[in-house]
Each structure stands twice: as C-alpha cells, then as structure tokens.
Amino acid sequence: MRGIVKGGNNDGGGATIVGQGEYVASCYENMAKGDLVTTRRYFGFDTLLKVNNPDVLPTGDSYSVAVSPDDVHVAIGHSSSPFLTIYKRSGDVFTKLTNPAVIPGGVVYGCAFSSNGKYLAVKVGATPYLIVYKRSGDVFTQITTTNPMSTAIGTCKFSKDSNYLIVSGNNGTTSGSLTIYKINATTDTFTQIYKATQNKSRGFDINSTGNLIACSATGSTSAQVFSFVNDSITELSSISIGSNTNDCAFSPNDTYLAFAVNSSPYLLIYKKNGSTYTKLTVQPSILPTGAGYACSFSPDGKYLSVAHTGSPYVTVYKVDSSTDTFTKIANPASLPTTNALYVAYANLNAYMIVTSVDAPYVAIYKADILGDYIHKYTGLSDLYYSNYINFGYAKSAGVAGNANKLITLPIK
Fold this sequence. Notes:
The chain is an all-beta fold and 412 residues long. The chain has no helices and 31 strands. The chain has strands at 21-27, 36-50, 62-67, 73-78, 84-90, 93-96, 108-113, 119-124, 130-136, 139-146, 156-158, 164-170, 176-184, 189-198, 204-206, 212-215, 222-229, 232-240, 245-250, 256-261, 267-273, 276-279, 292-297, 303-308, 314-320, 325-328, 340-345, 351-356, 362-376, 388-394, 403-408. Strands 1-29-2-30-31 form a five-stranded mixed beta barrel.
C-alpha cells in the first residue's frame, strides 16, 4: 500500500504542530497507540526490467554512479570528457542536463550526493582530485576544489547526516589514503579533520549510524573497520580477506558487511558480531562469475548486487536475514553488455543502475515497489535509511501486515 499524506490535522484535541500530517501505510510489526514510528519503503527486485537508455550516453568507461536523495538526479563518472554526466529523471526517462560550467579535468572514479541533496562530490583521477558542486535546481556549480591525496583511483561518500565528506585514494597498487572533511553547510566550507596514509582505501562504506567506516583491501589481503565518533577515527579490527578487494558495503541495518573481491570467490559476506564482523559460514551457493568491482545493498536491505567481470556482469541476491541466506535471483532478460564496474540503487524508487566499460556504458533496471511499512522507532539511525519516508507516532494500535495511520512530525 502506498501512503498518502493528508493536511495538518491531528488526532483530535491538543495543539497541531506546524507541518504535522497523517500518513497511511502497512504495519511492519505490532505496535501500540502512541509508539514512535518511522515509515520505510520496500521493493521487489526479483524481476528486473531494463528501461530505455538515457537520451545521451556517457562517453567512456563508467566507474561510478550517484543518485540524489529524491531520485531526481543521477550522476555518472566516466573516462572521457566531460568525465561527469548528470541526468534528470522524469518517470522512466533519464535526460542529460547541461554540463556544469566547470567540468572535472580527468577520469571521475567516484561521485556522491549528500543526503540533503545540496552537494555533489566528485573524486577525479587528476589534480585537484576532489571537486564539490552545489546544486540549485538542475544547475551544479563548483564551490570548492581540494587535493586530499595525490593518488588517483578512489571514491567519495557523505555521512548519512551530511556533516562529513570522506574521500579515499589509491595509486592502483599499494599506497593510498583516507581523508575526512567536516562540512559547514552555512558557509559551504569543507575543513579537513583527518588524513591517513594506508594501503586499504580504494572502496569504502559508512554504516547507517555514521560511527563505522569499512575500507576495502586494495594492495593488501586484509580490510579494516574504523570507529568514527566525535571527529575521531580509530581502527577497531582488521578483516583477513585473503585477496584484494575493490569495494565493500554495509547493509542498511549494519548486520552485514559485503566485499567485492578481485579473485575467487569474488564475493565475501561478513556478519556483525559485537564490535567485529565474522565471515558467514555459508556463503552464497552461486557466486559472481568474475572479479567483483562493486557491491551495494538495496535501500531496504533485502537485496545485494555485485558488479563484476564475466556474464551476466551483475549478480543480484535476495537476503533472508532470519537464516543469513543470500540466494541468487534470475538474471535480467536484458543484461549489461560487458564487464560492470559499479552498481547502485535509487532511494525511494525501484531502480538499479549498472555501469560498465563499453558502450552503452550504463544499464538502468526497474522493479516493483512493494509498499510503505511502519516500523517502531529504535533510534536516530532510523532517520538515515535511504528508504526513510517520515517520522511520527502511531495514531492507534496496529497489527503486523494491517494498515494503520500515523501522525507525522516534521523533524527532518
């Protein structure tokens, strides 16, 4: 069931908060009247249908994808000028926007939107290596450049609260670095608060609460998990992978940490065990067919996708967290045409985007929206799920699977 917002009425009696409304969705679990709740959207990626290619394709090997939090804009970083292509989505149609006035000066290996939709960061393979654009409508204006590292290959991501920008770099063999910037959104300034030289920093991910950073293991057979609290970063654990890894991804609820691996088995999945992650005893029975370059969980955590070499080039697993089982779903009827370099999901719309090394360089797939579901509130991290819709309290007691109404509160 899709929820529908109504005007600012409360449930009778008492003052109405400005921006307060009502929302109808299905209960994910039983709840009492007055329970604090959030609503999240769930998807069905079991059947993937390829939509038409964008009107103008990227101009070279496409290394990265970023989707704006409202799913309106999609940025793709690639190997030929203009190096960054930004699309605007209307329904299933993706239309190229005019290039920014200042384009990157080299290959774009990583790109990311902030969760507030205000910024687009770009990790470039040439000086100045990092560019940040500020978005106003469909216009992206460069506001800052900085040189976090002299290593070309890497990526960038914002923290879930948009207060930090983290950038990785690697020279393709052994040396690299991880740099963290604190953001002042009022003045649009990015202040470096941390920089470390290490060899495990090409691909990385930030967990839902923003207090953990996992770094893949390029140039080493071990990955790292760091604690990041109060602007301070500390290594918590080293994970022995046994092979170079190109990327890693936390599941939205932080239960799992997946690695895209350069050699067989090409994918490894770990489960959180206290402050560490332990490799699952039973890995997927059907593995990717070649080197894993990127991995991503769907916003609801129900699917895990891996971009890799070798047909079918993208492998999608359905996640059963009750049994820690990852089951490969059927390949899309229309596959990417060549080795895939990146895979990403939209946030509140059922799209999966795969980029690759040869034309058409991008394949966009659409699936089903299963519905919006009300969860009991467990903590601040609930507000940073990318499939988050709203926050409020249950207007009445609810039973799992049945429709219920919540009073929405304007906190985000």
